[in-house]
Specification:
The chain has about 55 residues and is mainly α. The chain has one domain. Helices cover about 70% and strands about 0% of the residues. The chain has two helices and no strands. The protein is rod-shaped and about 60 Å long. It starts with 13 loop residues before the first helix and ends with a helix. Bound molecules: zinc ion. Zinc ion binds near residues 7, 9 and 21.
């Protein structure tokens, strides 16, 4: 028996077990990864901007 990595409900299909998430949770998980990547890129840009300001002053 395998449980969903997000909501801990029992996974019913072999496909879900392969993914480690139920179909709905897998979609949400993918969206969260995309959002996290977006935030990470934002932080990187901020750090570059911050460094540029520090060099200029
Ligand atoms: Zn789930």
């Amino acid at each position: 028996m395998k449980l969903c990595g997000r909501c801990n409900r029992q996974l019913k299909t072999s496909k879900s077990m392969e993914l480690g998430f139920g179909p709905v949770c897998y979609r949400k998980h993918q969206q969260e990864l995309a959002d996290a990547e977006f935030v990470r890129n934002q932080v990187t840009i901020d750090e570059i901007m911050d460094g540029a300001v520090r060099r200029a002053s």
